[in-house]
Amino acid sequence: MTDSGSPAAPPPAPPDWTGFARAGEWRRALAAARLTGADHAAGLLEAVLAVQDGLRARRLGPARRSAGRLRELLEAAGASGEAALLGSLTRPRELDGALDALADSGETDPGTLRERLAPALAHPLTRAEALNMLGVLHALREEPGEARTLFGGALEADAGHYRAGTNLGNLDLEAGRPAEAEARYREVLRLSPEYDGAHHNLGVALRRQGRLQESVRSIRHAQRLGNKRLQESSREDLRDQFRSSEAIRRLRWGLIAGAAGLLWLLLRGQGG
C-alpha cells in the first residue's frame, strides 16, 4: 500500500458577499450571494445594482424606481440580519433626497452646485455621480485640474462609473494627448462595451492619430448604439409618462369602458 502523502487541502471557503457589500462592490456581492445560495440577499442586491446602473447612465427615473423597489424590499424584510446590513449600507431613507439633488439645475457656480449636491455627495450610492457633475462644470469652465481631480474622485467612489472615466479621456483629448485618451476610452469600453459616447470619442482619438479606418468603424458603431439607446429611452419615457399621468390613466379606462359599451351594443344588435 503506497503512501498518498500529505492530506489534500480543504476546498476554499465560498466568498462572503457581505465583505464585498461593505466595500461597495455590489456586483461582486451579488455574484457571491448567488454562489452561496443567499437568495434573499441576492434580491436586495439586484435592487441596489439597478440604482447604481441608473446613476452610471444618468437615468434618474429608473434609478428612483429602483430605489423605491429597494426600500420596499428592505421594509418587507424587517429587521433580518441581511436586510439590516444592506439598510445600513444603502441608507434608503436618505436616498430619495440624494437622487433629487442630482437633478439638472443649470447651476454655473461650483460652490453653489456643491452646496446643492451635498445630500448626493454624502450618500455612498450617489457620491460618484455628484462628483462627476462637479467635474463637468469645472471642465466647462476650462478648469481641467479641478475637473480631473473630481473625475478621479468619482472613480474612487465607483470604479465602474464609465462616464467619469470617459470624461478623464476627454480631458486628455482636449490636452492634445490622443493616445492617452484612447487608453482611457478602451478601459471604459471594457467596463461598458455598449456605451456609445466612449465609442464615438475613441473614434475621435483614433482620427487624431491618423488611424482613419479604425476611427470610422468606431464612430459608426457609436451611431448604431446611440440610435438603439435613444429608442430604448423613448420607450422608457413614454412608459413613465403613462404611469405618472392621471389624465392618461383616466383615458385608458375610458377607452376600456367605451370598448365594452361598443361590444354590448354589437351583441345586442346581433340578438335583435
From TrEMBL:
InterPro entries: TMTC_O-mannosyl-trnsfr, TPR-like_helical_dom_sf, TPR_rpt. Coiled coil: none annotated. This is Tetratricopeptide (TPR) repeat protein. It comes from the Bacteria. TPR repeats lie at residues 162-195. Keywords: TPR repeat. It comes from Deinococcus budaensis. The keyword Secreted does not apply.
